[in-house]
Amino acid sequence: MHCVRQKSVSVLSRQCCGGFHNLIPGFIEPAPKWNLQRQLRRTKVLSVASMNPHVKEMEYAVRGPIVIRAAEIEADLNKGVPKPFTEVIRANIGDCHATGQSPIKFLRQVVTLCVFPDLMTEPNFPSDAKDRAQRILNDCGGKSVGAYSDSAGLMVVRKDIADFISKRDGQPASFENVYLSTGASDGIKTIMKMLMTGKSGKDRAGVMIPIPQYPLYTATTAEYNAYTINYYLDEDNKWALNIPDLEKSLDAARPHCKPRAIVVINPGNPTGQVLSRKNIEDVIKFAKRENLFILADEVYQDNVYDENSEFFSFKKVLTEMGPDYNNVELASFMSSSKGFMGECGFRAGYFEAVNLDPEVVPYLNKSISAKLCSSVPGQALMDVIVNPPKPSEPSYTHFMQEKENVLSQLKEKALLTTNTFNSIEGMKCNILQGAMYAFPRIFLPPKAIETAKSMGISPDFLYCSELLEATGICVVPGSGFDGKEFLVSILFSLCD
């Protein structure tokens, strides 16, 4: 019992006492000195100093400081804090449902039936919605969207996507080249990860990215320790890709990286252009000549407003260029978030990868398998997007009315936005041929530019900040899209 009276108990004496001291009421064994010292010395495993440096380099302008400030202002308005406006208008991102667009009824009906099959007996659901839902459920494990699918996606959905691509392009497509993803962003990151060299310095992968650019791409190159090869879109030529400029950008980057891929966004985000077939052909020829993998971001393919413009998929143009281009590798991306659907929250998407080295495909499949699968309800939604009601089916008329209504409203907004910007002194905006954004140039007075520089911020950031504080309109500075220094611009979404 002598050991109980000691102020500290050694490991050996505790063992000798057999734990009997635990029976003494009120006895608290002090922590060993070595343990206290260890706790004092311990620092967090994950700190700003120790975390992945490539994550720290990531930037994403469409959810940056201006957007954070907008949320703070919204909180103030909810508390009754007086402002010169009553609401924040979020024109910073293409989230149409968040700004009032109604869901397409047929899409939601099919997904609802997939999620809760008991509703199949309800008369309020049309027969074509029930048929599609049952067809999808039959391909699910246990006939439930709560089960995992194959990593590449449900077979029935992949086949429907391949059929959609075939009809769109007038060229064959194989479901084996189709992969469902958690939005287009997930598919893009999957392919970009495959393209990385795993090396640093001049041996790391280089990816050509359009400027102005969608921030996902530079954020991903930073995260993956790749080298960003900026190429500038030609503002004076409807934001087209200028091949001599592509060559200059590529040549300048060679000492710093191993160029591996080129990203093309068509219709353009944030610039709103629709590439001509000739421009696409020139890009494909350039990619072949320079041995580059093409990533074609085509999520806005339904959003074409200019009567003189037409969407051509890279897959269609590449295939029609003939067998000389059969070795050009291409991944094309699609999403439920844009188009007439605007279903951002479902995070549904897919990509088609063609002309891959057959020996690479098992490794792509392995990479995708590590993520198990994309959201199965999202896969169901994507199936309805590519397999909408047919003219002979009961939901066709209403579906087409809703679809055309959304697209016509976006078209009207595109024209109104362009005309409005061009009517304001000190602003200039190209015709919005497609997508969901305007990217106007703003000619700020010298005093405003000097003020911004004295504050250590870009002039367009100052403009956007003051616009938000004075009017409640939230837009994104063009500098967040890596615009040229002289290009003081903002991003303005058509969704609001």
Automatic annotation (TrEMBL):
<protein>
    <recommendedName>
        <fullName>alanine transaminase</fullName>
        <ecNumber>2.6.1.2</ecNumber>
    </recommendedName>
</protein>
<dbReference type="Pfam" id="PF00155">
    <property type="entry name" value="Aminotran_1_2"/>
</dbReference>
<dbReference type="InterPro" id="IPR015421">
    <property type="entry name" value="PyrdxlP-dep_Trfase_major"/>
</dbReference>
<dbReference type="GO" id="GO:0030170">
    <property type="term" value="F:pyridoxal phosphate binding"/>
</dbReference>
<keyword id="KW-0808">Transferase</keyword>
<dbReference type="InterPro" id="IPR004839">
    <property type="entry name" value="Aminotransferase_I/II_large"/>
</dbReference>
<dbReference type="InterPro" id="IPR015424">
    <property type="entry name" value="PyrdxlP-dep_Trfase"/>
</dbReference>
<comment type="pathway">
    <text>Amino-acid degradation; L-alanine degradation via transaminase pathway; pyruvate from L-alanine: step 1/1.</text>
</comment>
<keyword id="KW-0032">Aminotransferase</keyword>
<dbReference type="InterPro" id="IPR045088">
    <property type="entry name" value="ALAT1/2-like"/>
</dbReference>
<feature type="domain" description="Aminotransferase class I/classII large">
    <location>
        <begin position="142"/>
        <end position="482"/>
    </location>
</feature>
<comment type="subunit">
    <text>Homodimer.</text>
</comment>
<dbReference type="InterPro" id="IPR015422">
    <property type="entry name" value="PyrdxlP-dep_Trfase_small"/>
</dbReference>
<dbReference type="GO" id="GO:0004021">
    <property type="term" value="F:L-alanine:2-oxoglutarate aminotransferase activity"/>
</dbReference>
<comment type="similarity">
    <text>Belongs to the class-I pyridoxal-phosphate-dependent aminotransferase family. Alanine aminotransferase subfamily.</text>
</comment>
<keyword id="KW-0663">Pyridoxal phosphate</keyword>
<dbReference type="GO" id="GO:0005737">
    <property type="term" value="C:cytoplasm"/>
</dbReference>
